[in-house]
Amino acid sequence: MTLPVVICDDSALARKQLAKSLPGGWDISITFANNGQEAIEAIKQGKGDLLFLDLNMPVMDGYETLEVIRREDLSSLVLVVSGDIQPEAKKRVMALGALDFINKPINSELVTSILLSYGIISDSQPQNPTELARFDDQQPDLTDLVQEVVNVAMGQEGKQLGELLGTFVHLPIPRVHLQPYQLLPSLISTRQALTYSGVSQGFIGSGIAGEAIVIISTDNLPVLAKLIPTGQQGLQASELEILTDLAGLLAGACLKGISQQLDVQFSLGHPTLLGQHTELHRLLGDNQQQQVLAIDLDYQLPDKNIQCDLLLVFTEDSLPALTERMGCLNE
What we know:
Blueprint: E1 3-8, H1 12-21, E2 28-33, H2 36-44, E3 50-53, H3 62-71, E4 77-82, H4 87-95, E5 100-103, H5 108-117, H6 142-165, E6 175-179, E7 196-205, E8 208-217, H7 221-227, H8 239-262, E9 267-268, E10 272-278, H9 280-284, E11 292-301, E12 306-315, H10 319-329
Parallel strand pairs: 1-2, 1-3, 3-4, 4-5
Antiparallel strand pairs: 6-11, 7-8, 7-9, 7-10, 8-12, 11-12
Helix pairs in contact: 2-3, 6-8, 6-10
């Protein structure tokens, strides 16, 4: 009997990778959903006895989707598939009724093992790769490819930040833009503040270059300082030390995750202070680059009312090499 399966992820690349990882001889029908709302509709139509569910999505995220499934007592087994590797993330989804948690990037052998362990497939199930006919029609473009690569990469940095500050970090949906450098201030979601502080760290490797910029509003710094452990002498870190450490953690972990997926070795420069307690447009300066590929990651610590932004900015000259590397993931 054919098993109706929903693959729910806002990334076309992620949906394609997951579909490709499923056992090829498995008798299933696949419905693709871009967000939790579409997944819920599919389940109600009898198309989702099994749901592969991403967490970070627009419209309705994975947590909200699990809450609806439980509240409305919908009949669907849920396997969460996410790049968020924080222990608290797994704890939360399991409490909401998820069957298991699968970390991105997808490993077909792990997926098969989990399906076997819950009796969803049998030992006699053919294990050959899935056929291309199962893929949806939406083909990932450069923006989608970049978004998914960054989405996977930021899971590690979210975990490290959460461990450092002793709290759960709400991982954002990466926002990818191709635009002039001068328009970068419009991307910062924390722009309600009057002044900001920021640090930049350059990177280069395999024809790809850019800078990672960490920006935090001035009124968030004292709160952040109280969360960071004191030094061996019990002295509280200075504001500059906090900014530098935060930039090194976020930029280093995210770029490491990107380099692993794209098989690129990045060399990182020393963190550079862009400014303290200054207006946003002055902080980012007046770079004359015509076009840059910019990814904004808006990190939130909901329990502490803190937000900070990581901007990954790739130069226009880097786009051909970046596009080539990204294209390999879509093969």
